[in-house]
């Protein structure tokens, strides 16, 4: 059924983006029947489940000091680059251009983009697709993201759907780079990528439950630092 995606460039990312669009469309339809009180309750459920996913991923890290340093250095880099502000500005610009009326458009765009991009499956799956033309990991991730998108779109609105192009570009870059980087991805590095991604996803869960207002976009450079620090600590 999914064989066709192994025959086209970045087929796994194509499927993943389509799954997010389809899931978002379903969520937008269902969201029309959800009142504000129920919407808040669903946010808490999403937050708890996102926290659970993040904890499971974070527990897989092999070098906790490398993960901590990557997170700190990534946050410092992201702060000076203004990544959080730039991602929010991108969401606001998209909202203005399509004349969207959703009050939480930008929040939905940023939250879903981060959730779909920071996990290890996005990176490792893209490497696998680029090097071996095997989109299986990204197809599995796409099904998961599609379900999540349907739930997020029902509460955040159409902003979730616009995370699909950002997701495709992000994973597409790793797919192209897979030929060169995949040989350097050791089991420990995979575990540490999952670890730092899990911590970021935990942050998304806390933000969804309105416990914190973490600037998670600023932490994204940590996903680059973890490659080098894992090699150093190994």
Tell me about this structure.
- It is a single chain.
- This protein has helices spanning 11-31, 36-58, 64-81, 83-97, 105-117, 120-132, 136-156, 163-181, 187-208, 222-233.
- The protein is mainly alpha-helical and 234 residues long.
- The protein has one domain (10-233).
- The protein is globular, with a radius of gyration of 17 Å.
- The model has no long low-confidence stretch (mean pLDDT 88).
Pick out its properties:
234 residues
What is this entry, summarized?
The protein has about 230 residues and is mainly alpha-helical. Helices cover about 75% and strands about 0% of the residues. It has helices spanning about 10-30, 35-60, 65-80, 85-95, 105-115, 120-130, 135-155, 165-180, 185-210, 220-234.
Give Rg in angstroms. 17 Å
- H/E series: HHHHHHHHHH
Number of helical regions: 10
**What is the mean pLDDT?**
88
Largest sheet: none
What number of domains? 1
- Low-pLDDT segments: none
User: Could you tell me the strand content as a percent range?
Assistant: under 5%
Secondary-structure content class: mainly alpha
Tell me, briefly, the overall form: globular
- Percent range for helical residues? over 70%
User: How far is the N terminus from the C terminus?
Assistant: 40 Å
Can you count the beta strands?
A: 0
């Amino acid at each position: 059924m999914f064989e066709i995606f192994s025959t086209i460039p970045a087929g796994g990312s194509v499927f993943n983006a389509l799954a997010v669009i389809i899931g978002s469309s379903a969520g937008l339809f269902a969201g029309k029947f959800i009142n504000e009180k129920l919407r808040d309750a669903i946010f808490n459920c999403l937050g708890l489940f996102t926290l659970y996913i993040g904890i499971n991923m974070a527990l897989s890290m092999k070098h906790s000091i490398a993960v901590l340093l990557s997170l700190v250095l990534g946050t410092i880099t992201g702060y000076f680059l203004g990544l959080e502000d730039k991602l929010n500005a991108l969401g606001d610009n998209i909202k203005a251009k399509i004349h969207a009326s959703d009050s939480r458009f930008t929040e939905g765009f940023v939250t879903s983009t981060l959730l779909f991009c920071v996990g290890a499956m996005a990176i490792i799956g893209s490497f696998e697709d680029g090097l071996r033309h095997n989109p299986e990991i990204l197809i599995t991730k796409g099904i998961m993201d599609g379900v999540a998108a349907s739930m997020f779109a029902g509460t955040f609105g159409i902003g979730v759907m616009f995370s699909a192009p950002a997701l495709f570009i992000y994973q597409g870059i790793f797919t192209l780079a897979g030929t060169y980087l995949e040989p350097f991805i050791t089991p420990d590095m995979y575990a540490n990528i999952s670890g730092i991604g899990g911590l970021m996803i935990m942050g998304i869960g806390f933000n969804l439950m309105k416990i914190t207002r973490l600037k998670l976009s600023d932490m994204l450079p940590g996903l680059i630092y973890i490659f080098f620090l894992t090699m150093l600590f190994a």
